[in-house]
Amino acid sequence: MTTRNITTQEQLQQLGRLEKDVTGIVLGTGNDQSATLLDLSDPPAWNQCFPNLRQLVIWSVSGLRVLQDLPQGLLSLEVCRAVDLQKIDGIPETLQRLVLEHNPQLQRVDFYTDQFPQLQELASSGCAALPQNVLHAWIQRSPQLEVLDLSQCPQLQSLLANLARYSRQSPPPRQGRPRCRP
Fold first, then answer.
1. What is the rounded distance in angstroms from the CA atom of residue 71 to the CA atom of residue 52?
2. Distance, CA of 155 to CA of 152 (rounded, Å)
3. Which residue has better confidence, 38 or 175?
4. Distance between CA 77 and CA 167 in Å, rounded?
5. Which of 66, 96, 108, 124 has the maximal Cβ count within 10 Å?
6. How many Å apart are CA 111 and CA 109, to the nearest integer?
7. 128-174 confidence digits (pLDDT tens)
């Protein structure tokens, strides 16, 4: 696995021109509130520049309004403190881990399919603009979900009410307890 740490948009563009075999990218200056935000107002076409990308981590960026053109083999997506991000479009069905934290403008996340057959870990906090029904739909459509972290999630009360209604209508859960992080 080839992972690259990128701290400037120029480094990302250069990497996209030179290395197509990159499987992991950590982009930004860290998930620290005091970190300087990286301007990502001109993102690459991820699926063309990095067709083998399996892990994408985006921390502390500005200018990124829509995250799209993600590669079909992506397994892990972590987006934290993308202050201008409003939409993630076309998350592939191969995704196993989705972490969305402190993206205050994020209103919409679209998957390529209605089901999320591989999603095993979902974490969401600080994304107050996401509609209340989105998290419920993700959980309901993720049969492999093992880890659910909704700490500091403003939609948690509504989600609990929806899940309670859903659990009364569903068959008994599969054997074993799902893991949850505190």
1. 7
2. 9
3. 38
4. 28
5. 124
6. 7
7. 888 877 887 888 889 999 998 877 666 665 656 665 665 555 554 44
**Contact in structure between 123 and 103 (CB atoms under 8 Å):** no
Which tokens is 161 given? Answer: 């009410």
- Give Cα separations from 54 to 3, 50, 61, 70 (angstroms): 10, 9, 20, 10
Instruction: Name the token pair of 69.
Output: 């053109």
User: CA 65, CA 177: separation in Å to the nearest integer?
Assistant: 37
pLDDT band of residue 21 (cuts 50, 70, 90) is confident
* Contacts of 61 by beta carbon, 8 Å cutoff, 6+ apart: 27, 28, 37, 38, 39, 40, 81, 82, 83, 85
63-87 in b/e form (b: 16+ CB < 10 A) is: bbeebeebbeebbbbbbbbbebbee
Cβ–Cβ < 8 Å for 104, 83: yes
- Both tokens of 174, joined, read 């599969």
Q: What whole-number distance in Å separates Cα of residue 2 and Cα of residue 53? A: 9
pTM of the prediction? 0.81
What pLDDT, on the 0 to 100 scale, is given for residue 95? Answer: 94
Over range 117-137, report the average pLDDT.
86
* 34 pLDDT above the threshold of 60: no
Q: How far is CA 154 from CA 14, 87, 131, in A?
A: 38, 18, 10
For residue 140 the two structure tokens come to 């309901």
